[in-house]
Amino acid sequence: MNLEAVRAFVTVAEEGQFQLAAAQLAISQQAVSKRLATLETDLGVRLLNRSAGGTQLTIDGQAFLPHARELLRVEQRAADSVRPGRRALRLDIMTSRTAPAVVAQGFHHAHPDIELDLVRIADSAQAAIAAIEAGTIDASFRAVGSPVSRLPAEIDAMPAVDDAHQLLVGPDHPLAAARSVTLAELVGQRIWMPGMLPGSEWDIYYYDLADAFGLTIERVGPHFGTEHLLDVLHESSTLANLAGEHTRYLWPANYDMRRIPIQNPTPIYPHSLIWHRDNTHPALATLRDYLDARTTDAPDAEVWTPKWEGRTAPRS
Length: 316
Description:
Strand content: 15-25%
Helix content: 25-40%
CATH topology of the largest domain: D-Maltodextrin-Binding Protein, domain 2
CATH architecture of the largest domain: 3-Layer(aba) Sandwich
Number of helices: 9
């Protein structure tokens, strides 16, 4: 079905005259008549009756009009879905619990007029980079610079958010009463990090952290989700977990879980925003401006990031 013919029919029905419809569509009356004739031939019915006083819808025309209007609305939505500035900004936040989700939420609060399409690529940076190169997403939050998260020449990056680590323990853990801990105090402690994707940039990050400070990070055991992780930590007097300060956990009040700052140095997981340099979506530029305006003062405390992390400006 010719959508221009459908548009001509809807315009004539709304204007009531071929002359007014032709002016509205910026075509000749003859072109309007030709499009309507084509549409009526395709449908096998008469849609309009012409008279000296104007046009009137036939019974079939009355029945077809709401569907014709919906066809034009669908056409507009389809076109808007791929036009830069009209479609939503497709943003990979990895998971809904971690720092990128918090940053995306803050951006939405600052710019509620910008539509976001949040996706979650729970895979390594290579999967996110491939999605950016393919154009299926506009941007992603990733730790870049590791052996598995080096960026191709056409992918740009900027600092997004630094996620300071905390120690997460249950009430019976020996460190539960501590106001803060050092990495030296974690030597010999069992730090349980199930569900680590082998070979991912965060797997490399925790391997480097453990190697730098002599930590014992256990990746064994199936990962049944956050609730199971919290259940195990609550009941254990020996297991601990490393959690980003922006990571959102909810647990029952009787669990009395403890989130303890790690200091001197504080391990930082460095999230960057990455995007294709040829991407002209205007909301992407707004997002970069938003990130650039976030606090960038150097932290007061000593921090640790892996050697492969090449950013120069920290983000809070």
